[in-house]
Every structure is written in structure tokens, then in C-alpha cells.
Amino acid sequence: MSAAAVARVHRALATRPRLPLATLPTPLYEATRLRAVLGGSETCPRILIKRDDLTALGLGGNKARKLEYLVADARAQGATTLITTGAVQSNHARMTAAAACVAGMRCVLVLTTSVDEPAIAGNLLLDKLYGAAIRLVPSVDPMLAVGQDEAVVAAVAAEERAAGRVPYVIPVGGSSGIGVCGYIGGTVELVEQLHDMSLSRRSRIGEGGPSRLYYASGSRGTQAGLTLGAKLCAAPYRVYGVAVSAGEPEKIERAKRIANEAAALLGLPERLEREDLVTDQNFIGEGYGIPTPAALEAITLFARSEAILLDPCYTSKAAAAMVRHLRAGDIPPTETIVFLHTGGMPALFTEGFVDRYSPDMNGYL
Ligand SMILES: Cc1ncc(COP(=O)(O)O)c(C=O)c1O
Asked: Pick from 18, 275, 311, 316: CA 20 to 30 A from residue 241's CA?
């Protein structure tokens, strides 16, 4: 990390409107018990967990950082209604509904579902609690969970205008150039915390610096922000995304486009290329939202070692990748790794998890 580089990013971010919605900074927590159950300091690197599940807004998660910039932009444009879209158990939709409450705005959620009457549980229950208006759209491909709903979103925006309101459409996952600013800011926060822990130098064996940042990658706003942020701040770690859904070629394109839109918005000359935006495709399993055995085991492992709750859709798949690599001895025990916890816990209270989970399937106990 270079202090001058970080100061430049701070200045660039300060040029954008931002509505404080999240409780920041989130803790950077050392998971000593998780390290112990994964072999201890003889074989396992030090594990730090960046607790973005604790951003607080509407039960927390990564979207709070994006929404700070998106909702501020909406307000600057005089918008009165936030419209967004996602799968029926979308964390992003839930957090947008919560952000609308804080911002004093109306919220309409266009949610894709593969069943006629989805259970009112988890995120969908919270969407209703936060008072969002909900439009359910049949899902053409529930495995992809993106992009089937543009026509409905356009129709909802037209209805809002006809009713005298001013709509602001937030793309799926909050993944736009403006949303990307959230994880550029998140990166600044993380590298400053690592610096305070004397962990800001690039890792070489024996030095103990952080070598990888594991996180779950969906609609790619987090990836774009983390990757561009790491480049801008000369972060010491490699950004290691774990994909949770298919459709990689177009997602790389989207990540590149929105990262470079963010750089342009911030007046920064750096740009990302496709090669900068690699994610691990090996932990998706059957598809989006379907937990794998390794993800279910990771949920138990984190819960029983650290009392940290992972979610069945995103963070458990990223954790499954990290656990697999640690057990295989891929990362020397002299190093440090960071796991970005992006939230998503409401999905633990849905059939998708409850019907699949059995504590007995856990391998390590
Ligand atoms: C809990 C959780 N983790 C990770 C992600 C992935 O973030 P992104 O959509 O920015 O790739 C999401 C997106 O919905 C999420 O809800």
C-alpha cells in the first residue's frame, strides 16, 4: 500500500455524493479458532475476516456500500422511488428496501421466482417489512437469476412517472459504475486496517503479509470495486473471487465495463482489462442459490468455530473454496489471508437452506 495512492483515492471518492447508510468501518476480525480447526499455525495461514456482514443497514451485507453512492445519486437527481430487481431471495433487493426507508423514499422490487407463490420468508419477508412494493416475475432460468426482467422494470418506471413520482432504477446487484465506488471505498478501508496491523506489504514467504482476499462474486459490482480498488491502492493481496452463478463471459464484460465507468466517474486514469477479472468457477455446484455439500460444511465450520454465520448462496461457496485451498496446503502457514464476509444471512431462514441442511453432514466434527 502507498499512503499517497490511498490519499488520492480518498480525494476522488469525496467528489461523489454519498449518503451514510452503513456502519463503517466494519471490523477486521482474526479467526484464530477457525485457523485452529484447519490445522493451526503449523500448516494454516493466519485468517482475517472482513465483517461486511456487519454493515448494519437492514441486516447488513455488501450492498450497503454500493447503496450509499447509488441512493445519494438518486436523491441528487430528485428521485422519489427506488426500483431494483433480483431473485426472490435477493439480498440486494432487501437492502435497497431498507435504504429506501432510511432515505424516505418509495421502493418497488421486481423479483424473479420459479414458483407461483414463493414463501414469505428470509429476504422476501424483510422486503415486505420494509414496506417495498413487490412485483413477482416468472424466472426463465432460475440458475442465472439475472436479466429477465428489464421490460417489467421499464413498465414499473413508467407507472411511477404516470403517478407523478420520479423513479431511479438500480441495476441488478447495484452493479453499476456508481455502485462500484462502494468497494473502492471498501478497499481503502481494508488496506488502512491492514496497514494499522503492519500487514500492508506484499506477501513473501516468511513475511506474513496478506496474499489473498477471498470473496463471493455474483453480479460483479463487488469484484469490479475490489479489483479496481486493489490496483488503485497497490493492495498487498490478490483479489480471489469465487463465482456463485454461471454466465462468466458476459459477467467479465460487465465487471470491466462498470469498473472502468467508475474510474472515469472518479476522474482516475487507471483501467481494468479482462485478464484482471478472473474468478474461480469450481464452487458453483448445481447453480445459483443451490448450496453444495462443501458450502454446507463451511457454514457449520464457521458457525461452530467462530459463531459467524455464512449464507447458503454466496459466502459459503467462497468459504468452501478457501477451506479447500487451506486443507490442501496451497497457502504457506507464514502468510495471511483475508475472507470478505458479504452477508446474506436471511437466506438461512428459507426452505432453500432448511430443507438441505443436516448438521450430521459436517466432515470435520
Ligand atoms: C451476500 C452476498 N454476497 C456476495 C454478493 C455478490 O456481490 P456482487 O453482486 O457485487 O457480485 C451478493 C450479491 O447479491 C450477496 O448478496
From this structure: 18
Both 339 and 319 in one domain: the answer is yes
Asked if residue 190 and residue 295 are part of one domain, the reply reads yes
Do 123 and 270 fall within a single domain? no
SS3 103: helix
In the chain, which ranges are continuous DSSP H helix?
A: 3-13, 32-37, 63-76, 91-103, 122-129, 150-162, 177-196, 221-233, 248-265, 293-306, 315-327, 351-354
Q: Please give the distance, rounded to the nearest whole angstrom, from the Cα atom of residue 333 to the centre of ligand 1.
A: 29
My answer on whether 239 and 287 are in the same domain is yes
Q: Around 234, how many Cα atoms within 13 Å sit in the side-chain half-sphere?
A: 12
How far does the centroid of ligand 1 lie from the alpha carbon of residue 61, in Å? 8
Find the catalytic residue in 2, 41, 90, 316: 90
Report the nearest-CA residue for atom 16 of ligand 1.
Answer: 91
- Of ligand 1's atoms, which has the minimum distance to the CA of residue 224? 10
**Atom in ligand 1 nearest the alpha carbon of residue 315:** 3
Ligand 1 neighbourhood includes 145 CB (under 6 angstroms) = no
For residue 87, pLDDT over 60 is answered with yes
Instruction: Look up the CATH number of the domain holding residue 12.
Output: 3.40.50.1100
Catalytic residue list contains 90: yes
One domain, residues 24 and 126: no
Q: How confident is the model at residue 176 (pLDDT cuts 50, 70, 90)?
A: very high
Report pTM: 0.95
